[in-house]
User: What shape does this take?
Amino acid sequence: MSRFLQHALAANPTHPSWNLPNGLCARWLAPGCVQLDGAPDDADSVLLSCGVHGNETAPIEVVDGILYDLAAGRLALNCRLLVIFANPQAIRDGARYSQYDMNRLFNGAHRAQPELAESQRAAQLETLAAGFFHAARKRRLHYDLHTAIRGSVFEKFAIYPYLHERSHSREQLAWLQQCGIEAVLLHSQPANTFSYFTSRHCAADAFTLELGKARPFGQNDLARFAGIDQALRKLLSTPDAAIAPLDAPSLPLFRAKYDLVKHSESFCLHLADSVENFTELPDGMLIADDGDTRYVAAGGAERILFPNPKVKPGLRAGIVVEPATLD
Ligand SMILES: [Zn+2]
Assistant: This one.
């Protein structure tokens, strides 16, 4: 563990500045939030966030390893870099969250429940991210790194937040492919996630990256994360390096068709607990019911994503997705 992660997880952290090799300076902006300065002002601005869900440890280890090598002078930094260990309390507890799922509280949703610890943190992270990107002069990039609760037909996939009038970036999709991302979900409506917030309100190219299955610290096979690790290191050290063009046929795209909303405690999901993300739903299959509401699969090409019947009523208990193409 680097001293960055140790500091991020300290019970009562102070906000020091640390001088690093190669003329870099690390500034703690808030608990778990460290900005590395030293690259030219007109460099790309990169926000790496991890631990929005505290039990998703592999991305924390990947980001920590990058910080470790930057601090040891083994990795050059030619971007402005903000690293956010998003939910230190949940990381310490080895829990997804303490009081409420933080990735449902961005985009201002925290204002409806200001008493929650995760709401206060989400508000703080929005302010920090907005400040960081406000000073950006070149590309604005945000990768919010996660692992999923369950297995997946596509082990590594990205969620591309809804862009409103903006168009999807083929260059970013090509970069994701270089990371080993195997599929991309193109969201078709706003969401209260960190990546939607920075996409919509900071004009960042922002993505939620699901990089495998969540395991406790020390039980991750970091070789399975080599693709994202190497791609991030290359981005930070040589941001202008050429990227192989997008090989569209080998990167399937999906779009969210509708959310399975759990309206009441009588919500019943008709899928096995072990069902993997992106499992195909046969035409006519009853996916879930909830009182008089029935969710039935249509067409045979739909797939299930993030099924979780245990969420609180009023929240999304899964997403039904279908194949998509770029505009
Ligand atoms: Zn997550």
In short: The first helix runs from residue 3 to 9. The two ends are 44 Å apart (CA to CA). The domain at 256-324 is CATH 2.40.50.630 (OB fold (Dihydrolipoamide Acetyltransferase, E2P)).
